[in-house]
Design brief:
By secondary structure, the protein is an alpha+beta fold. It is 27% helix and 28% strand.
């Protein structure tokens, strides 16, 4: 992980190495935190944050679901994110805002603890690797089941949820794969360990609905809109693992993963075993959009200035 200079913590800029919390911070023990992942891309007009306001809306909704009150208005955090990018002199970066129950009392009732907020930015290349972006990644269907709404709220981007993802990711890596794909409790495809999933069958793009346990991802949402504008047929419905095995193409989407093809699942080649034509078309369009090269989608870009 490449350090930057400053991290924003509760309204102040702190040196990277001094951005610390107490060992008895509530969120460290009980997973009581919500967070976001965003990217800032270099454009001809300067650095721009992709879908800033959508990500912040999800951040506040995640907090609401967990009965947390973030002690800053959304506009304040938007300014703080921009200032954090500027103070670190970043042109492109990953952005991580987090709100968490801090140090105060232990126990399962966090309400007497303060809610702290921090924002960090750092350079982060392609999450699943440059080769994965070009040629595709190898995935494993996880033995771990994706959490559902009777266990934890999967639509909230909460730290507690991601232990489910960590277990799936570790299992996949230990078995020699790049990434995991989780099924839900009904046996349908939910998502990757940290990404949404799409498949292509007979020219139609398919993706699981959020009711399958998938996070409402904004890269996912963007791909859906791009597919519509490119006249690519799209259907949102439950997907069986066998449909994934026999798909013509498949790919993962996410802020970190961007648009990463899947070339293999559980030892089965997907399509030709390399990036497919619809995946490639959507991937190319996505990178044009995030770098401001298609004026139709400048609504998604918030200039840092």
């Amino acid at each position: 992980m490449e350090k930057t200079e400053k991290i924003w913590m509760d309204g102040k800029f702190i040196d990277w190495d001094e951005a610390k919390v107490h060992v008895l911070t509530h969120a460290l023990h009980y997973g009581t935190a919500v967070f976001e992942g965003m990217r800032c891309y270099e454009t001809d007009d300067g650095p721009a944050i992709f879908r800033l306001w959508d990500h912040l809306t999800r951040f506040y909704n995640s907090a609401k679901i967990h009965m947390m009150r973030i002690p800053y208005e959304m506009e304040e955090l938007a300014r703080a994110i921009k200032e954090t990018i500027k103070v670190n002199r970043m042109r492109e970066c990953y952005i991580r805002p987090i709100a968490y129950y801090g140090y105060g009392e232990m126990g399962l009732n966090p309400k007497r603890n303060p809610i702290n907020v921090a924002i960090a930015v750092w350079p982060w290349g392609t999450y699943l690797g440059e080769e994965g972006l070009r040629k595709g990644v190898r995935c494993k269907i996880s033995s771990w089941i994706r959490i559902d709404t009777r266990m934890l709220p999967p639509l909230a981007k909460a730290t507690a949820n991601y232990l489910n993802s960590v277990l799936a990711k570790l299992e996949a890596i230990e078995c020699g794969y790049d990434e995991a794909i989780l099924l839900n409790s009904n046996g349908y495809i939910a998502e990757g360990s940290g990404e949404n999933i799409f498949i292509v069958k007979d020219g139609t793009l398919l993706t699981p609905p959020t009711s399958s346990g998938a996070l409402h991802g904004y890269t996912r949402d963007s791909i859906k809109e791009l597919a519509k504008d490119l006249s690519i047929s799209l259907l949102e419905r439950e997907i069986l693992r066998e449909e994934l095995f026999t798909a013509d193409e498949a790919f993962l989407t996410g802020t970190a993963a961007e648009v990463t093809p899947i070339r293999e699942v559980d030892g089965r080649a997907i399509g030709s075993g390399s990036i497919g034509p619809i995946t490639k078309r959507l991937q190319e369009k996505f990178f044009q959009v995030v770098r401001g090269r298609d004026p139709r989608y400048k609504k998604w870009l918030e200039l840092v200035l």
